[in-house]
Design goal:
Strand content: 15-25%
Order of helices and strands: EHHHEEHEEHHHEHEEHEHEHEH
Helix content: 40-55%
Structural class: alpha/beta
Shape: elongated
Strand order of the largest sheet: 5-4-3-7-9-10
Number of strands: 11
């Protein structure tokens, strides 16, 4: 523990010492006038008891006053301790890639909340958000601005909820937030083109020449209604070749054959596959990501001064309570 304003503390303690010195000197110099015929009273047991109690409370008052003044002086001088805080940016890039077809809206609402928890638990990574249906849209490029990423997720959640309030209305800006760009050519190509969504997300990684850990958290029901340029197996081969790890999160009611294809594809990349109980999957995903390359790109160690008034505030309060109690006893 250290003191911020050491000179101020020294001055305050000196003032306290002088005040107490004056107090005791005055007590010695006071001319005591004798009172006649008090010997008998002083010899009685009740007098001796009251005088003894008076002396005890008197000295307790002095002790409590000293503690109050000293602790107040220390608090004014601000005691603190130094705390080292390490921060930095890990060399992990994480994309949240989400199938936003309306058939899995209920799951996506839950998934958005889970994504926000993942972002909260991981610190230092760069996050990006990619959504897809017929085509893909990059909602957020890779960034370590978590406030911005959470804002995008909030907007996506509002857009899904607005769809159930207003229906599909291209003129409604909020509803169209997730439909704009994701339904390009859906009349011909179809919807939920899962391999295209995964491949497009892989192409959104930046700094491709740098040695970084690249991760995609990929959610879909893998229920494709159209012709993709690739199969999901071929897309996972590309991910493996690019050293991109894919974590698959399935949704409620996924068909068995779609489930198996999805699981086989993500496991091929070195990732993991999770069922639709998102809250139970969060800790597993975070722990798994934590094991993937913990080297930092930038170290930023800061020493911060943290005030610690609690150690002196408690005796100050207790001494104040004790002082009031003793004064009450002396006066009565």
């Amino acid at each position: 523990m250290e003191i911020r304003y050491k000179i101020l503390l020294f001055v305050l303690l000196l003032v306290i010492f002088i005040l107490f010195s004056i107090k005791f000197n005055k007590a010695k110099m006071t001319n005591k006038k004798p009172v006649a015929n008090t010997l008998y009273i002083r010899e009685t047991s009740i007098y001796k008891k009251l005088y003894k109690n008076y002396k005890i409370f008197y000295y307790l008052i002095l002790v409590f006053c000293a503690i109050i003044m000293i602790t107040s002086a220390i608090l004014i001088s601000r005691p603190y301790k130094e705390k080292n805080k390490e921060s930095g940016i890990y060399n992990r890039d994480i994309f949240l890639c989400m199938d936003v077809s309306t058939s899995i809206d209920e799951n996506n609402l839950e998934l958005i909340n889970s994504y926000k928890k993942i972002i909260k638990q991981l610190d230092g990574e760069r996050f990006g958000i990619s959504i897809f249906n017929t085509s893909s849209v990059l909602l957020s490029p890779l960034t370590d601005d978590y406030t911005y990423v959470n804002g995008i997720l909030n907007n996506l959640k509002k857009s899904i909820l607005a769809y159930y309030d207003y229906g599909y209305d291209p003129e409604n800006e909020l509803v169209n937030y997730r439909f704009s760009g994701t339904l390009v050519g859906n009349e011909i190509k179809g919807s939920s083109l899962v391999p295209n969504g995964l491949t497009s997300c892989m192409n959104s990684f930046t700094n491709k020449d740098e040695e970084r850990t690249r991760i995609i958290i990929f959610s879909t029901d893998n229920d494709q209604n159209g012709e993709s340029l690739l199969t999901l197996d071929e897309a996972s081969d590309i991910a493996k070749k690019k050293n991109i790890i894919v974590y698959g999160v399935s949704v409620e009611g996924i068909y068995a054959n779609n489930d198996k294809e999805f699981k086989d594809a993500v496991l091929k990349t070195g990732g993991a596959f999770y069922k639709s109980s998102y809250n139970n999957s969060i800790s597993k995903i975070v722990k798994s990501i934590e094991t993937k390359s913990k080297a930092k790109l930038k170290e930023n160690n800061k020493t911060r001064k943290e005030d610690i008034p609690i150690y002196f505030f408690i005796p100050l309060i207790l001494s104040t309570v004790g002082l009031f109690y003793c004064v009450k006893k002396v006066i009565i």
